[in-house]
Design goal:
With 339 residues, this protein is α/β, with parallel strands linked by helices. It is 32% helix and 23% strand. It contains eleven helices and twelve strands. The chain has helices spanning 48-56, 82-88, 110-121, 126-139, 145-149, 158-170, 188-205, 216-222, 240-245, 250-257, 328-338, and strands spanning 4-17, 20-33, 37-41, 63-72, 75-76, 93-96, 176-180, 208-213, 225-230, 233-239, 305-307, 313-315. The longest helix is centred in the middle third of the chain and has 18 residues, at 188-205. The two termini are 39 Å apart.
């Protein structure tokens, strides 16, 4: 993307443990253009949230960013420290957490917190900061924003608190917002309202979003593009509509097959067998191979990046609809024999 505002290149984040260095993020690369929403998808333990924290520079010991670049408008955020990094956070790149109470102080009024957030980066009067805060609440669809500014977090519903957290992230019109599963704990109807507001905000303000989620149903209605992660690696990328309509990687296909909305009520949901492997004990070659219905002899070696029409990619020896794919009935045995 020539107009990409965020470029993540070969990002590697590891955590030092007694078992050795665990590669939570292992060579992740993607780009997000202004006004676009990228869905970063995967099961728990896939590395998607750690990727988001790494982009913001929120990794602390025993973790560290071991390599790669996070270019925000051409500036490598991974090289910023101290005050230089603090000037970027909130002003140019912001984060919305899954639990809004990680953002909100329970003993301070909403207005007090938002005014402080405005003045942390802009030397303006309290009156100007109050008006910007009120406008931000209105922008995310909060009714009677003046009253909400005078309320404490516990006086608001979960959905309203999450809207406030998004409003705080928008206070300085950042170029990028990282959203870490911010609607997971919300009622479906409230979730839908917030997703619609986020889509509108991206279109109207030009802010780029990286939406971290395990829910492909959310991504299908929100994202422009998708990166699917597994065991610290990006295994499939592409336009959201194309990936959902015809996944190339077996893992993506397994996630899509297990979406409840795709099945009749009472019908047994298909599942991806097994569970995400421990980063301390990854299988050789492709980490997904032991769970994969298409696994074959080559899967004991590092899979290549396969390229498809429309800029789509899949990290797989035997991608779906590939002529080189062995018969599904023989793959498990073939993999077990090879390993």
């Amino acid at each position: 993307m020539s107009d990409a505002v965020l470029k993540v290149r070969d990002l590697r984040t590891q955590f030092h443990t007694k078992a050795g260095a665990l590669k939570a993020v292992d060579g992740v690369s993607f780009e997000v253009a202004r006004g676009r929403i990228l869905g970063l998808v995967g099961e728990s333990g896939s590395g998607k949230s750690v990727t988001g924290y790494s982009i913001l520079g929120l990794i602390e010991a025993p973790g560290e960013i071991a390599g790669g670049e996070v270019l925000l408008d051409g500036v490598d955020v991974t090289r910023l420290k101290g005050e230089a990094l603090r000037r970027v956070r909130g002003a140019k790149i912001a984060m919305v957490f899954q639990d809004p109470m990680m953002t909100l102080n329970p003993v301070l009024k909403i207005g007090t917190q938002m005014i402080a957030a405005v003045r942390a980066h802009d030397k303006v009067s309290r009156k100007v900061a109050w008006e910007r805060s009120r406008a931000a609440l209105a922008k995310v669809g909060i009714p009677s924003p003046e009253e909400r500014l005078d309320a404490y977090p516990h006086q608001l519903s979960g959905g309203m608190r999450q809207r406030v957290a998004i409003a705080i992230a928008l206070l300085h019109s950042p170029a990028v917002i990282i959203a870490d599963e911010p609607t997971t704990a919300l009622d479906v109807s409230i979730q839908g309202q917030i997703l619609a507001e986020v889509r509108r905000l991206a279109d109207d303000t030009g802010t780029a979003f990286v939406w971290v989620t395990h829910d492909l149903a959310v991504v299908s209605s929100l994202a422009d593009d998708i990166c699917v992660m597994y065991a610290g690696k990006v295994v499939e990328t592409g336009a959201a509509a194309e990936v959902i309509a015809s996944p190339r990687h077996p893992y993506t296909a397994g996630l899509l097959a297990s979406v409840p909305a795709e099945h009749e009520p009472g019908e047994r949901l298909p599942q991806v067998p097994g569970s995400t492997p421990s980063l301390a004990n990854l299988p050789p070659g492709c980490a997904f191979a032991p769970r994969c219905f298409k696994a074959g002899p080559a899967c004991t070696t590092t899979p290549p990046v396969q390229h498809f029409e429309g800029g789509r990619t899949a990290l797989c020896h035997y991608p779906i609809e590939s002529d080189s794919c062995p018969p599904p009935s023989s793959t498990s045995a073939a993999y077990q024999n090879a390993s």
